[in-house]
Every structure is written in C-alpha cells, then in structure tokens.
Design goal:
Layout: H1 2-20, E1 25-33, E2 38-43, E3 57-75, E4 83-88, H2 91-98, E5 103-104, E6 107-110, E7 120-122, E8 125-134, E9 137-142, E10 145-150, E11 154-160, E12 172-180, E13 183-192, E14 205-209, H3 212-224, E15 230-233, H4 241-252, E16 264-267, E17 276-278, E18 285-289, H5 293-309, E19 313-317, E20 328-331, H6 336-343, H7 345-349, E21 355-357, H8 359-365, H9 383-401
Parallel strand pairs: 3-13, 5-10, 6-11, 14-15, 14-16, 16-19, 19-21
Antiparallel strand pairs: 1-2, 1-12, 2-3, 3-11, 4-6, 4-8, 7-8, 8-9, 9-10, 12-13, 17-18, 17-20
Helix pairs in contact: 3-9, 4-5
C-alpha cells in the first residue's frame, strides 16, 4: 500500500513539473534519451518568493511531428536586399514606424526556406522586406514607403535541424509545446547558435549577473581583467531579484553532474526591484515597489545561499544610486537605493565569504560622477565613469578569487 502511494505521489510530482514548464520558455538540455524521445532540461521558471517554490529542472518529450530549427547568426549587412524578415519592435518603435519616422529594432530574423510569408504588421512585430545600408542600419518597406531604422549588427537565420544538433549544456533552446497524456510534448525547438566569446582554457572565468549597469561597465571590466580572467555577462538584463531566482541555474549553466566553469560569480539586483509607479503630473509616487524591500532581502539571501553552498566565490555589487527622481510607469525615487542596500546588511553578515564591491559608495564619493549626480538617469554613459566602475568590480573579483 505504501509503495503504491509513493508511486502515485511521484506521478503527481511528474505531472506538476510538466505542467509548470511554460511553453515558449528558454532552456538548456543536459540529457537526451533518443530511445524514450525525452530530454532533461534546466529552464527559467516562475519562482514564487512567498511560497519559496519553483523548479528549473524538467523532463520534456518530443514526437514524430516535432519541428527542430537551428538559428544561426549572420552580419546584417550581408542580408540580400529585399529579403522578407521578421522585425521585432517595442511599442514606441511601432508608433514611430506607423508615423514613417526612423525607428529601432532589437531583433531581426528570417527563414530562407519559408514558402508562404504573410507580409504585414502584427503586435510588436513587422514582417516586411529589408534593405541593409551598413552596420546596424537599414530600410524597411512599409505602406509603400522605405523607412529607415537602426538595428542589431547580426540577424537570426533559420535552418532545418534535428535533436542530434543540440549541443548539451551549450545551445540555448526555445521550446514550445503542450501537455498531452500527462507529459509535456514539444511541438517546436529553436536551437540558438549565437556566437559567444570563447573562454581561454588557461585562465579562470568569471560570470557577471546584473542589470544594465553591468552592461555599462562590461567592456571596462573586460579590459581590466585582460590576461587575468575570462569575463562573460549573462545575455541581456538580469531584471529584479525574483527573476534572478528563476533564472540562476540556467545563467550559471549548472547542469547536473557537470563541473562549473565559473571561478567567480558577480551578482547584483536592485534597480529593478526598487522601481515605483509615479504620476508625471503630480510627481506623486505609488508606495508599492516592483519588489518590496523585505521580499528583496529574502530573494538575495536565497541567491547567496545557493551560490555559497556550491562553493562559488561570490562578489556582491551594491546597488548604484538613484541620483534624482524620475516619473512614469516604472519610475524611481531619489536615494531609494539606500533603503535596498540597508536591508541587505544583515543578509550579507550571514555570508562572510562573499566579497562586497560597494559601487554605491564609489559613485557617491568620486568626483568623476559629479555631473552624473545632477541628473535623474541611473545609467552611466561616459567612458571615464564606466572605467571607474569596471576597475572597482575587477578589483573585487581578483580579491574574491584569491580568497582561500
């Protein structure tokens, strides 16, 4: 009887795991069983900080009709003029496009083998012929006009693939499908082959997990660590601490049974957590934050616990200042960073092995940032500002790496 109950419980857990995988999510495959037509993956998942629940490990299945595609990347300037592409748009750029004005796009893709292509505009997407004008510049044909745009240096090109094309633990997959007979059955897999800098096997490696501030100082950090360490950032923006808990294992590529490639992990969340809505007319803030300070502290505690329990050498970067209040849908209140850094003081005391890089103090005390402090933009656009930040983070990384 007990054995039967245990089996039922395990089955229920398996069904729950399959249901909790969200179609369209990104993932890494770490085990592929061709006989069972199944793959084990790690993926970004919906972590619930209140319940402290959320798994990133799933078993998915494919079927005879499952479509596998490889997405390679080529220079935008090499695209044949008149090629019909999918051009992805933010709302503001869609508005500029409709007005016939110069707009920007973050992503362009096309499939040379596509037989039927529905040219037209969709929500946040335009499907139309493009005409490259050089690196990151082009024109698109829309409503009988040629409209200029700024775009990425590379575009995604699709090719037919198979499960054999998946490089375990390396290729970023995007997976669609649905539950069928208590299993998640994959309808389509996109195998992304975006080129990333190769790691020098003779050097230790550091992974930087952070928001757009870490994007600001990324090149300066790489320059400061040249010939000392390989330095890589996660792809894109880390967002708030809830997303950090959802995506951490995928960012780390913590594939079960594999040795980690990172000697040091740099971690920061904060500027997204402290966002507040504010009325631009009255300049009155809604007291609710994107992630409240107490929840933020618990989230960071969980991240640090995970990293230190696996013996990662960790650098925590304090949240940089909000120099002046900004207003709108996702606004920030001046000096709200002080509140969020303060709630982490008792959390960081629990992890004396973590090296703290106090970028907040660096920005507040250095004359290099005198002009920056007069504005409201949290980002750093001057090279001298970025160099100060990059050098400070590099020093903390080397300090953490040399700790015994």
């Amino acid at each position: 009887m007990k054995v039967r109950l245990l089996l039922l419980l395990l089955l229920a857990c398996a069904v729950l795991t399959a249901k909790s995988f969200k179609s369209g999510s990104h993932a890494l495959a770490y085990e592929i069983d061709k006989a069972k037509k199944s793959m084990k993956i790690i993926a970004e998942t919906a972590y619930d900080p209140k319940k402290d629940e959320g798994t990133s490990v799933y078993t998915l299945h494919w079927a005879p009709g499952t479509v596998f595609k490889i997405k390679n990347f080529v220079p935008f300037a090499s695209v044949k003029p008149g090629t019909v592409c999918e051009i992805f748009l933010y709302k503001k750029d869609e508005q500029l496009l409709r007005q016939g004005k110069v707009f920007s796009t973050r992503r362009i893709e096309f499939d040379p083998a596509a037989k039927k292509v529905r040219v037209g505009i969709r929500p946040r997407k335009l499907i139309a012929p493009v005409y490259p004008l050089g690196k990151g510049r082009g024109e698109v044909e829309f409503n009988g006009k040629r409209i200029k745009f700024r775009g990425p240096l590379t575009v995604g090109v699709f090719a037919k693939g198979s499960v054999d094309d998946i490089q375990k633990g390396e290729d970023k997959l995007r997976i669609w499908g649905k539950i069928s007979e208590k299993k998640f059955v994959i309808s389509q897999v996109i195998i992304s082959r975006e080129a990333r800098p190769k790691l020098d096997p003779t050097l230790p490696s550091v992974l930087v997990i952070g928001d757009s501030i870490s994007m600001n100082y990324e090149k300066a950090l790489q320059a400061a660590l040249a010939k000392k360490m390989n330095c890589q950032r996660i792809e894109g923006n880390s967002g708030d601490s809830i997303r950090g808990n959802s995506a951490l294992t995928m960012w780390l590529r913590d594939v079960p049974g594999a040795k980690s490639r990172w000697a040091v992990v740099v971690l920061n969340h904060g500027l997204h957590d402290l966002k507040q809505k504010a009325d631009p007319k009255t300049k009155k803030f809604n007291e609710k934050h994107q992630v409240e300070p107490d929840v933020y502290a618990k989230n960071i505690d969980r991240l640090l616990k995970y990293l230190t329990s696996r013996n990662y050498k960790v650098v925590w970067v304090t949240t940089t200042p909000v120099p002046g209040s900004s207003y709108g849908a996702f606004a920030r209140r001046k000096d709200e960073d002080l509140v969020y850094n303060k709630v982490l003081v008792p959390v960081l005391k629990k992890y004396p092995q973590v090296t703290v890089c106090d970028l907040n103090a660096t920005v507040r005390n250095s004359k290099v940032f005198d002009e920056w402090r007069k504005g409201t933009n949290v980002h750093f656009n001057k090279e001298e500002e970025r160099k100060v930040l990059g050098d400070a983070v590099a020093a903390a990384i080397m300090k953490a790496y040399n700790k015994k």
